[in-house]
């Protein structure tokens, strides 16, 4: 009985140990995401600064009187923005977002009636402007959907004071000058039928020399949208050929050095035998392509395309397959070499695990893919494989030639059947620049401010990333200059800011936007509203100011590129890691005008700390709580301020105490008053708690429920005097009421506890089992069969019952099973029945008793060899 309990205990101990191992492994691998190492589904990088509310005097905005405008930023030249909308074209000043001129173009009643007869909605049967291209300084090409009957018009801008009589084809601008219609023509192939179709266009000629033959467009033809094409009058791609274009969604296009590049996503024809997938593409055509002879006279002879590979590396790479946006070509120095990069926003599918990434593609890698092997398919049931070089004709298909009409048919037939390149274009540095995973939002658009100079003299690309929930992220590409950090890990980008630009709005039953503010600061939150996606971003620079133009479907805003003034201490300013901002030791403030005195400016883009700030890093959360209970009147302090988000007042340059190890990410929430620090403004102190998703300090005393719903924090001290919602995030271990530990400490603790529990569990089980075994051996002698028979009877088995009499053993059988057991002994080669032997009497000698016991032993051995139920009984006993 004891042995049975010992075995049960050992099984339970083993099961408990296995459970511990499983849980520990899950915790260990789930939390051992080292800083700087890209994981497939890591937590989003926290921003250094969250801004929920931008002061009204720092924001400019534009929206028209129409209920739904469907804005598209179609062209900008530095001073003006050309915006296409529903039935309208706006020429807007980039500095003030005020309308300089407007052009109204509505579809005719007959076109609207025909559109309605074809089954389209009333909202769709308007003229949505989708192409605005300047041919010269005084001439512009405008194309619109025109109620599902695309048309294009050429307009001329008349000088001031020169009017054409204000007829139906002349419209006065909002300021001086008039637009005069010079030509109207069909727009099929230049503009989509459906306003929801994504299209792109670009001119491949300098301003003033542009004609219709220089306009390259990627769009869809036909009313049903079943004819995608890349078009330049009179050439186009192959019609109804899935190898060329397969349900593409065009993103952008650009002209560079004799080529026009198109970026789009489409259904992958090379994956069609395995299912359906969407791949991102880059395609190019030669600007001097004149078409081919005979049947190729209206076809491009240089069209090639390749896949864009944006993925997290590994044994099984994770791909971001759907291209959403591309930035302009930027040129700079990256890791000691000059390169031209194109930053792109890539996402997973809409019905997939939500993920977004920004990848950079080098132009040399794109051209190398077009000079590589072709991909082809022998027949419809074959795999897509590289085409061997011996099958590629000469001259090589896809190259730019002086006279494409003289190309041989073998070259033209080959490029018609093999427009896809085998090699995909890899991401620069082999991985995404920044990755966001989660269901909260996706990236939608990107703008780049290239090669922004820092105090150290290094230049960094600053990325502005729009999201589908109205936020703009500012990211500094640190990895473009250094691959590894001081600790040997892969350098990760710096998310400087997360700014709420378009707050969610709710449409009321009357059609107006509820919760909308006509004045005041931007970014007020309406928790019941739908998020507003950002559709375009433009970095606007002028001699007087710098701003970011942010476009949504119904509103345009201009917001600052930087928010240096929100950091009021040296530590907070340096911790931003923003190349626009530096701490001035002379002026004792965080400023963007640091270039006037570079030597007295403190900044650290790669590390986020500088020893010249002179900060005591050993403060604890108890200090913060103690100071919060000893608040005094603000007027009693002479200078300096204090708050959980700005823990230090102005610091003296000579104070260099409390420096931190080089390469560490400093995260501070409180500091003991330093001797060289001015008096703290303890009136601004209050009890604070850590934000659940970051190391930021959240004010429990604020009454901003809307900001709390979004997880955004209000700066209690109103750093810029505007009452803006701000929080400076912690980037490393932060000090709070519950101390936090890094992932390495957690991994070591979990591993130690697992090993310890395994060792203790097995040792305890072994000792307990041995002790129970010894107790049984002490209680039962080698000749005592009474205990043995009791165990047999308890298990319900038919076993021999041996009782010890006065003169010897008496052999009997207890019927414990459903059938008798005929025990046959093989003695001297002859089978004998042990039951037939006579029982000993009282006069038997000790030798007879010994012989009987030997017979019993032989009987037991034979029974075990025959695998009877007695074997099971013996196992239980042992």
From TrEMBL:
The residue ranges flagged as biased composition, category Low complexity, are 637-650
Q: Which residues cross the membrane?
A: 746-769
User: Matching InterPro entries, A to Z?
Assistant: Plexin_repeat, PSI, SEM1A_sema_dom, Semap_dom, Semap_dom_sf, Semaphorin, WD40/YVTN_repeat-like_dom_sf
Domain Sema intervals: 48-561
Q: Which GO terms describe its cellular component?
A: plasma membrane
Subcellular localization, as worded in the UniProt entry: Membrane
Q: Where is this region: Disordered?
A: 630-662
What Gene Ontology terms describe what this protein does at the molecular function level? chemorepellent activity; semaphorin receptor binding
The cross-references to Pfam families, in alphabetical order and at most eight, read: PSI, Sema
Q: Which GO terms describe its biological process?
A: axon guidance; positive regulation of cell migration; semaphorin-plexin signaling pathway
PROSITE patterns, sorted: SEMA (PS51004)
Q: Which UniProt keywords apply?
A: Disulfide bond, Glycoprotein, Membrane, Neurogenesis, Transmembrane, Transmembrane helix
Record's PANTHER family? SEMAPHORIN (PTHR11036), SEMAPHORIN-1A (PTHR11036:SF127)
User: What's the protein name?
Assistant: Sema domain-containing protein
Q: Which organism is it from?
A: Varroa destructor
Species classification: Eukaryota, Metazoa, Ecdysozoa, Arthropoda, Chelicerata
């Amino acid at each position: 009985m004891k042995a049975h309990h010992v075995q049960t205990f050992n099984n339970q101990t083993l099961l408990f140990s296995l459970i511990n191992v499983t849980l520990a492994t899950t915790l260990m691998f789930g939390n051992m995401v080292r800083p700087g190492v890209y994981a497939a589904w890591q937590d989003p990088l926290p921003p250094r600064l969250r801004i929920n509310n931008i002061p009204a005097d720092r924001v400019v905005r534009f929206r028209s009187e129409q209920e739904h405008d469907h804005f598209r930023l179609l062209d900008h030249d530095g001073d003006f923005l050309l915006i296409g909308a529903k039935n309208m074209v706006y020429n807007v000043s980039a500095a003030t977002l005020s309308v300089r001129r407007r052009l109204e173009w509505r579809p005719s009643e007959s076109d609207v009636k025909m559109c309605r007869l074809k089954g389209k909605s009333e909202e769709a049967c308007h003229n949505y402007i989708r192409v605005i291209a300047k041919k010269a300084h005084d001439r512009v090409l405008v194309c619109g959907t025109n109620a599902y009957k695309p048309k294009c018009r050429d307009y001329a801008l008349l000088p001031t004071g020169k009017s054409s009589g204000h007829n139906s084809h002349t419209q006065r601008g909002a300021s001086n000058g008039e637009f005069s219609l010079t030509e109207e023509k069909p727009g099929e192939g230049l503009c989509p039928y459906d306003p929801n179709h994504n299209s792109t266009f670009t001119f491949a000629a300098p301003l003033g020399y542009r004609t219709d033959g220089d306009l390259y467009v990627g769009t869809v033809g036909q009313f049903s949208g079943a004819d995608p094409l890349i078009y330049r009058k009179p050439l186009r791609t192959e019609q109804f050929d899935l190898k060329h274009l397969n349900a593409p969604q065009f993103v952008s296009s650009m002209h560079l050095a004799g080529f026009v590049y198109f970026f789009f996503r489409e259904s992958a024809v090379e994956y069609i035998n395995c299912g359906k997938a969407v791949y991102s593409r880059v395609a190019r055509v030669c600007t001097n392509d004149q078409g081919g002879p005979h049947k190729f006279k209206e076809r491009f002879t240089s069209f090639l395309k390749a896949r864009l590979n944006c993925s997290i590396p590994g044994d099984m790479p994770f791909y971001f397959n759907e291209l959403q946006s591309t930035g302009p070509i930027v040129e700079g120095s990256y890791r000691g070499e000059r390169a031209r990069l194109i930053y792109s926003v890539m996402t997973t599918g809409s019905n997939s695990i939500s993920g977004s990434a920004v990848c950079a593609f080098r132009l040399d890698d794109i051209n190398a893919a077009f000079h590589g092997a072709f991909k082809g398919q022998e027949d419809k049931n074959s795999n897509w494989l590289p085409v061997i070089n011996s099958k590629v004709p000469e001259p090589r298909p896809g190259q730019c030639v002086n006279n494409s009409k003289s190309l041989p048919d073998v070259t033209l037939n080959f490029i018609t059947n093999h427009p896809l390149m085998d090699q995909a274009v890899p991401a620069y540095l082999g991985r995404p620049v920044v990755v966001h995973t989660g269901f909260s939002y996706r990236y939608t658009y990107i703008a780049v401010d290239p090669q922004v100079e820092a105090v150290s003299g290094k230049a960094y690309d600053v990325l502005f990333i729009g999201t589908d929930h109205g936020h703009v992220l500012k990211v500094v590409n640190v990895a473009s200059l250094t691959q590894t950090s001081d600790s040997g890990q892969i350098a990760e980008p710096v998310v400087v800011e997360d700014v709420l630009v378009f707050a969610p709005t709710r449409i009321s039953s009357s059609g107006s936007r509820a919760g909308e503010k006509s004045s005041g600061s931007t970014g007020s939150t309406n928790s019941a509203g739908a998020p507003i996606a950002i559709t375009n971003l433009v970095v606007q620079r002028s001699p007087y100011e710098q701003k970011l133009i942010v476009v949504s479907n119904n509103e345009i805003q201009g917001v600052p590129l930087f928010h240096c003034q929100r950091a009021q201490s040296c530590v907070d300013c340096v911790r931003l890691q923003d190349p626009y901002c530096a701490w001035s030791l002379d002026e004792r403030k965080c400023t963007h005008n640091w270039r006037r005195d570079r030597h007295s400016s403190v900044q650290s883009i790669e590390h986020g700390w500088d020893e010249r700030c002179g900060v005591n890093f050993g403060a604890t959360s108890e200090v913060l709580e103690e100071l919060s209970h000893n608040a005094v009147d603000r007027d009693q302090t002479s200078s300096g301020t204090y708050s959980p988000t700005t823990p230090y007042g102005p610091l003296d340059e000579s104070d260099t105490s409390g420096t931190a190890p080089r390469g560490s990410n400093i995260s501070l929430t409180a500091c003991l008053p330093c001797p060289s620090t001015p008096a703290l403004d303890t009136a601004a102190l209050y009890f604070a708690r850590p934000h659940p998703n970051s190391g930021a300090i959240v004010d429990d005393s604020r009454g901003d429920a809307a900001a709390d719903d979004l997880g955004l924090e209000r700066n209690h001290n109103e750093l810029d005097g505007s009452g803006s919602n701000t929080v400076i995030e912690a980037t490393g271990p932060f000090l709070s009421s519950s101390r936090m530990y890094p992932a390495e400490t957690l991994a070591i603790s979990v591993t130690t506890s697992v090993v310890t529990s395994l060792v203790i569990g097995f040792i305890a089980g072994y000792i307990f089992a041995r002790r129970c075994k010894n107790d049984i051996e002490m209680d039962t002698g080698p000749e005592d069969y009474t205990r043995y028979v009791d165990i047999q009877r308890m298990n319900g088995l038919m076993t021999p019952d041996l009782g010890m009499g006065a003169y010897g053993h008496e052999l009997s059988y207890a019927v414990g099973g459903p059938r008798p057991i005929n025990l046959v002994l093989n003695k001297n080669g002859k089978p004998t029945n042990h039951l037939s032997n006579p029982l000993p009497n009282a006069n038997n000698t000790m030798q007879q008793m010994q012989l009987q016991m030997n017979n019993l032993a032989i009987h037991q051995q034979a029974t075990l060899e025959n695998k009877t139920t007695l074997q099971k009984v013996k196992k239980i006993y042992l």
